[in-house]
Amino acid sequence: MNRKCFCCFNSMNSNDKDDELLKEWIEFRFEKLESNLTDEDKKHALNYDTFCEKIFDIIPDKDSDYVSDILDDFREELLNHCVYWNEKYYMTGVNDVIKFITNDLNS
């Protein structure tokens, strides 16, 4: 293993507050993943706009602005929820792998 990489692993492992490198990696992976979606991936996309259209079809026009605001808030909350838990899940997993690798290399 490249010594520089080993030092990066050690610094990521030893300083939980300094997770900038890990965040940059997650951003890179997201961009890479987003640009390589398969048909199967697209099949499992959340069709939020379709749900909104169905709701707007059954509510009176006078309530549409209010419902639109609520749906926008819900979309934002849902997105924040997903981003938070995905980052936490992957950062924890990557940190576990880094600890495993550094412990194995140090023994």
The counted number of beta strands is 0
- Low-confidence region ranges: 1-10
Number of helices: 5
In which range does the helix fraction lie? over 70%
Profile the largest sheet.
none
| Beta-strand percent range | under 5%
Mean pLDDT: 78
Distance between the termini: 15 Å
Q: Notable features of this structure?
A:
disordered N terminus, mainly alpha, 107 residues, 5 helices
Describe the structure.
This protein is mostly helical and 107 residues long. It is 80% helix and 0% strand. The protein contains five helices and no strands. The protein has helices spanning 3-14, 20-34, 39-43, 48-58, 64-106. The longest helix has 43 residues, at 64-106. The protein is elongated.
How are the elements arranged and paired?
Blueprint: H1 3-14, H2 20-34, H3 39-43, H4 48-58, H5 64-106
